Amino acid sequence: MIGASRRGNLLLALAGLAVASMPLWTGAYHMQLASTALIAAMFALSLQLLVGGAGLVSLAHAGFFGLGAYTVYLLGPVSVLLSLPVAALTAAVAALGIGALSLRTTGFFFLMTTLAFGQMLFFLFHDTPLGGGLDGVFIQRPDLIWVVSKAQRPAVFLLLNLAVLAAMYAGLWLLMRTLFGHALLGIKANEHRMRAMGHDVQRLKLAAFVLAGALAGVAGHMAALTDAFVSPDLLGWHRSAEALLMILLGGIGALHGPILGAVALTLLEEFSPLITERQRLVEGLVILAAVLLLRRGLAGIAR
After folding, report:
1. pTM > 0.90
2. CA atoms of 301 and 159, how far apart (whole Å)
3. CB neighbour list of residue 297: distance below 8 Å, 6 or more residues apart
4. Domain extents for the chain?
């Protein structure tokens, strides 16, 4: 898995500056839309560590996203300095337990095992009063910016989400250049050879699974913080499938692929209703064309 080139990183930085300037030239609706895309990018980027880094496809990832979101609800209106690390830790602990069991299997069986665990987490909040009911619940946001007026909050959340995404991307960019990152890429390329060379493959994969889960928890925390609403739908397996689709659209082999894919899918879902009432048909055709014609995703165009 590679990061963007120097030119690509410059373009990403310019795009980030453009997003950061949105409060100066656009309204609350478009800032909320941008925040949605940024959160989707965080979630897909966390899964890219598994898919593009270690070659693991997990359908339990939305469960960690949802756990991070529900942590905000269960903790109540506490400081973000507390809720954010607790959300990451909660998701990481769940990923440790699920990963330790799921990674005993491989291939299709690993995929189905993660799906089973993901559905367990979904029904934990769907069928019990733990998460406020199956219809979801509005939450009190943690203490952060309540000296700021409601009219200014979309801008603050936009900048906060942008900062978290930038930190996540930079952290993973550095991680993939360490021995750990190179070992993950080696496992993806040839797991048996890595094992023969003496690497503890299971421990490396579990470490990646836990780290990816923690980052998904951070993304879920930011979603709950931004929307002030949580529901069991956040843990549904289709959320994991959407993240996989973003990775596929953006480029599996590129660290910045999920960001491109998240932006593309968010814009597609936003503007396809303007073309036709059958928006899912349009989205399906566009995605199918992208898969067939852009084998390396959007990140592969520049390459």
Report:
1. yes
2. 28
3. 247, 248, 249, 250, 251, 252, 254, 257, 260, 261, 290
4. 26-236
